[in-house]
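Quarterly update from the structural biology core.
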Amino acid sequence: MMIKVGNYHLRPFKDSDKDDLVRIANNKKIAQFLTNKFPHPYTKQDAINWLKLCKTKRGEIRFAIATETELIGGFGLLPCSDIHAQTMGLGYWLSEDYWGKGIVTQVVARMVEYIFEIYPDIVRLEALVYEGNEGSKRVLEKNGFTCEGCLRKNITKYDKIYDAFIYARIKE
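Predicted structure, tokenized:
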């Protein structure tokens, strides 16, 4: 499956993404705002492990953000369960070479439409934004997400403790 987003598209990750993944993901500026599942440094073995994980169906839904010729980022969805079954979490990252071009803003806009259309029971989308990630806050706000609060001292990354901000968008 491929979802067109302007000049870019979302598609499944594939084995041929390995070299692009190592090249663009090995960037501390990207890793600093992601969970520790996205390591730094990012090695060839990390890429192999990620691509193997993407072939499994362990709840998360993963898309590569790509041009016609290369991988440039990733977008993930995490369906929640139990009393949160009508909520889905989302996350994303992009190659530093493509920052500031509005790509992630377009991707999030398209994915909000897609999620609410494909998953009729989902009524809430949410994202956790780390303190200092102003670009991600802007992406979400441009797409109708509201900051619902601050989770104080919620994230430990590189031996520092940060606040996290919970953003959500409710289906109209």
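The beta strands are 3-5, 8-11, 61-66, 71-79, 87-94, 124-130, 146-157, 160-170.
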